[in-house]
Amino acid sequence: MGDNIFVTSPLLPPLEEFMPYMEKIWQNRILTNGGAFHQQLEEELANYLGVKHVCLFSNGTLALLTALQALRVTGEVITTPYSFVATSHTLLWNGLTPVFADIDPQTFNISPERIEELITPQTTAIMPVHCYGIPCDVERIQQIADVYGLKVIYDAAHAFGVRKDGVSILNHGDLSVLSFHATKVFNTFEGGAIICHDARTKQRIDYLKNFGFAGETRVVAPGINAKMNEMEAAFGLLQLKYIDGALAARSTIYQRYCEGLQGIPGISWFDAAGRFDWNHAYYPVLVDSDYPLTRDGLYDALKAEGIYSRRYFYPLISSFAMYRHLATASVDHLPVANAIAEQILCLPIYPDLTQADQLRVIDIIRRHAQKTKKSGKPVRHVA
Q1: Which residue out of 52, 151, 184, 377 is catalytically annotated?
Q2: 360 shares a domain with 252
Q3: CB burial string 219-228: b at 16+ within 10 A, e below
Q4: Could you say which DSSP state residue 338 is in?
Q5: pLDDT at 125 over 90
Q6: Residues in Cβ contact with 288 at an 8 Å cutoff, skipping those fewer than 6 apart
Q7: What is the CATH number of the domain that holds 275?
Q8: Residue 263's CB: how many other CB atoms inside 10 A?
Q9: Are residues 358 and 307 in the same domain?
Q10: Is 375 within a domain?
Q11: Once rounded to an integer, what is the mean pLDDT over residues 217-224?
């Protein structure tokens, strides 16, 4: 069977390079609460990403929760059902009502046309997701927000380093929220960040993530404890030294998949060529009825050979019990998202994925493509 191959894996720099950071933390005797590495990582990330202000968090979910608090969002928030559950969970935790809009079949992102038709007097914000790091239609979404006076908070968990027209995608909207979870392109074990555009907003966010403290004895807001500790910040600084190489490796792996899967009936993927600077965070493919196996069948076939792909995102957020009662969660309201969720499969992609292992993944997919379809008809190959 060989070694197991996973859908994603963190970039792990040499252990010996992490030791000086640990020794420095030990010498400083500062483990958290905005220590030296925390401050340094905020500065270096802002420079690297091309944004004005970075507010570090202990994880991306707490960052989303706090972003909604920082903008004082109320009522209804239009969002996508095609995401990780944390996107909508943060709305419920803030006492907000998620309103689901269908997605674009090409980009997997929220459809601006569907957003506009769902706006009511109770709508105060839009929370789109840059799914797989593919940028949303940020210009159209901002136009809608401006017309109706809505806030825009981007769940940019997948969008580290993504640029469009030479500008960071994180500069759009009122706030953008990153995840630095261990499975992400850039990680700090656990972690996250809010990207904001002015010092006043950053100050409010920094209050909120530290219990609302504004000094030793003054509390100005009902904040929470969401601070990133010094160990995670130090790991982030070390990761940042290797991130360009990691992104280049991901790009090579992405291109190899595109070449290797070319011409397989029933297998398609997103083509970002020349459209924006992508981070190749994922390699999502759609498995449709022209492929001999169902999506779940291919998932099981890969797993049987030690290859762990992921049906990401399946099930839809709208199908979970705490959301099913919403009018906008119905299958009829979300035809595209439901169709994509039944076909999606993310293949393994990470900087250390070897060419040999990747070719094994491709070979398995091709091998099953050569089998007779369930209908008994032979598979038609495309030259």
Answers
A1: 184
A2: yes
A3: eeeebbebbb
A4: H
A5: yes
A6: 266, 268, 343
A7: 3.90.1150.10
A8: 11
A9: yes
A10: no
A11: 96
